[in-house]
Amino acid sequence: MKDSQRRLVFSQLRMATEVWQGVLKDPMPSDRWLARYFYQNRKKVGSRDRKFLSETIYAIFRHKSFLEAWVEKAKPRPIMSDLEKAECLCLYAAAKEGLVSKEDFREFFKQSEKVYAALREHLLPEGGGPKSKEEMMALLYSFPLWMVSRWAEAFGVQETERLIGFFQQRPLLVLRANTLRISRKKLVDMFRRMGVEANQTAMSYFGLILQERRNVFDTPAFRDGWFEVQDEGSQMVCQKMDPQPGESIWDVCAGGGGKSLLLAAMMENKGRIVATDLRSYKLEELKKRAKRAGVFNIFPAELDRMAELKLAQRGFDRILVDAPCSGTGTLGRNPDAKWKLAPSWFEALPKEQLAILEKTLPFLAKNGRLYYATCSVEAAENEEVAKTFLAAHPELEIVPCGEAGEKYFKLWPPESGTDGFFLAVFKNINEGQKAENKTWKKR
Q1: 285 located within any domain
Q2: Chain segment 213-229, per-residue pLDDT in tens
Q3: How does DSSP assign 12-39, residue by residue?
Q4: Are residues 420 and 283 in the same domain?
């Protein structure tokens, strides 16, 4: 490698160390943190730098325990400062991703070729004493030990290893064709003409998977709203809802509006979708996305003023509660999240999820359907919440929504190849209770 290229890699690793230390201290999700950093430093951080930084930081989150084991094994002296450990962690992550060559690893950074080979082949360092199966899995797949132990008890050791092994893989990019603008087939053909291999998703009628990583967002097709990024599992929740043109729908926890946008396309822009979220900046993002997508039947609203809406007073045909959850079904796509979770979440979240369902139920029309969805694999957030809610409301009945007629629709990532998702559908068979103005707790 030329000296200029080596200086570039050295500079990128210094930036990566700075970014890693910043991301680690901030509770903000890493994708938002990186987006903010890139925007604030857009004059000095180019496209090659952004690629290097993103891949290095995500590699650390994805392989953190594994990389830390090698940093400890190969450290040049018994005591290293936090800065030195961070620098070494970034170097090893970049080497694992092939961003640093074997020659530079050896000659420029004075590291062992054997370490480089082990990083690339994902081989654990020798020694360290005997470990239990759960401890070995936590180290090899870089997951918190408490989470591995929890899942081993719930799913069994073999299924847990399948799950965390799937999450450790780098996910492919899944898109959704905006059928208000273009058909899925035409979008696939467009990508292939661009030299990007794209295949239709197996379950969703709207999805496509890109077989290689490519920046498709700096294209006229994206700017013109032809597609959105959306996991196939998320698309399947909307597909299971089967909204009809002219219906009224409330997307309670809309976030950035991924599901609202697909529902609008399925409804052919006919009917009304009321989108709410406690985070106002998310609704601003939704407005921009809707404009780009050519969607004009989504109406953002304030949660605390729902009872004032005439549409809400009449009752919605369908209500989607895509509840705030642990996100354990998305840890392949969001590897930083596994290091921020805590066991206490699984006690607090079901209470919050039930509270949201209770507040939305009064706005459901007779014979209307309430959809409870999470991107979690935890029974405490899924089946247990659904059972508790149903038991408290005799005016509701469960509507089977599984692929083979099961009570619930569930996606298990190692089998579906998607994020993990859960869906329960409730039908209002009585008039229900009168809508009241209730206060929503900010989170």
Answers
A1: yes
A2: 888 888 999 999 999 99
A3: HHHHHHHHHHHHHH--S-HHHHHHHHHH
A4: yes
